[in-house]
Design brief:
The protein is built from seven helices and four strands. It is mainly α and 163 residues long. The chain binds adenosine-5'-triphosphate, (3R,4S,5R)-3,4,5-trihydroxycyclohex-1-ENE-1-carboxylic acid and magnesium ion. Belongs to the shikimate kinase family.
Length: 163
């Protein structure tokens, strides 16, 4: 959360002249509900089922940039779908930066707790190895503005040998 998947995904798609999809936005559009509301009504489990269905569908489409939600990597089915579907970029961010970048909005239900910093630390410990497992490229985003991150992704993508 707060790594910049949505922000950087959109900019990257523009540079590549490809359509951009964001699984969180896609779920919101398809349900007509926002994410906190889905978590309230269906629980995290319900949200994860919707997320998996959207990722399975979109990762099969050619020629797009897909930003996932921060927790998508937790499911093996999602990791497999993403790996099979294209190149995967892990935007790594320190927990300190995540805290800063997520402090201004309230639409992340997992952070609506007394101690969001601790939640981010716990999630990072669980998720970081999974992101690294699925990623073709790991990019550091701390102290780098989005445009610089996008330029690095583009040059790292070019350097990858074809699959
Ligand atoms: N490299 C960066 N440097 C500074 N601020 C950034 C950077 N990337 C993103 N941000 C800012 O951090 C906030 C969160 O970014 P964004 O919503 O893109 O994160 P996300 O990874 O999509 O989060 P989530 O997992 O919750 O979907 C936004 O306000 C965005 O402008
Ligand atoms: O990190 C997470 O588990 C989440 C991140 C957001 O992108 C949303 O998918 C939702 O708030 C859950
Ligand atoms: Mg996002």
């Amino acid at each position: 959360m707060g790594a910049g998947k949505s922000t950087i995904g959109r900019l990257l798609a523009k540079e590549l002249r490809l359509p951009f999809k964001d699984s969180d936005k896609e779920i919101e559009q398809r349900t007509g509900a926002d994410i906190p509301w889905i978590f309230d009504v269906e629980g995290e489990q319900g949200f994860r089922e919707r997320e998996q269905a959207v990722i399975a569908e979109l990762s099969q489409q050619d020629g797009l940039v897909l930003a996932t939600g921060g927790g998508a990597v937790m499911r093996a089915e999602n990791r497999q779908a993403l790996h099979a579907g294209g190149r995967v970029v892990y935007l790594h961010t320190s927990v300190e930066q995540q805290i800063d970048r997520t402090s201004r909005d309230r639409n992340r239900p997992l952070l609506r707790t007394a101690n969001p910093a601790q939640v981010l630390r716990d999630l990072m410990a669980m998720r970081d190895p999974l992101y690294r497992e699925v990623a073709d490229i790991v990019i550091e985003t701390d102290e780098r503005p989005p445009r610089m991150v996008v330029q690095e992704i583009l040059s790292r993508l070019e350097a990858l040998s074809p699959r």
